[in-house]
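re: ur question from earlier - yeah i can do the single chain one, its not a big deal. heres the input i used so u can compare w yours
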Amino acid sequence: AALQGDAGTLALDATLAGSDVAQFRALIRDGSPGALARAVERHAGVLLDGLDARSPAFEQWLIERRGELRRLLLGAAERMAAQCTAVGDDAGAIAALERLVATEPSNERAQRDLMEALARQGRYTDALRQYRACREALRRDLDVAPEAATESLHRELLRRRRAAPADDAGIDAAAEAPAGIVARPDRSVKARSGGS
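and the output i got, formated as tokens:
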């Protein structure tokens, strides 16, 4: 029987039953680009989310396992992004970095890496949108402004977008306009007013 136990213990025989956590860990141990991609893709969220354990000892165990799985996911996403970047697979790097910043929005280095990967694909508007998301996450989560390296990258992205061909499909002048300013498609801006 896969389920074994006595009066004080209940256990699952891992040789007779598998789990998504065991598969996740095995993929990370493999470490190949494909395995890491599958691990990042398969990570389905918080372990036993919504479970009311009603046991302080089990609750503590669960908190520790959740933290461990989160660290494994972050590490796998970082390794996947680095592997993809090393071989010029910007789409793969973007997928890994998007998962990384979705899990840890205040990871400023990952945010910069994502902005750079988007820019390498000519997606300057998306990169600038990511800068804004980064700035907001840092303010919300840590109450800090972006690092000088992030601000420098932001200025470089603005410069590169201006220099890019006009057919950049997603040109969004709002990315460079201060709050309260509305961007128009011809790249000029006007102040918002109550009547228009």
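The chain has seven helices and four strands. not sure if urs matches, ping me
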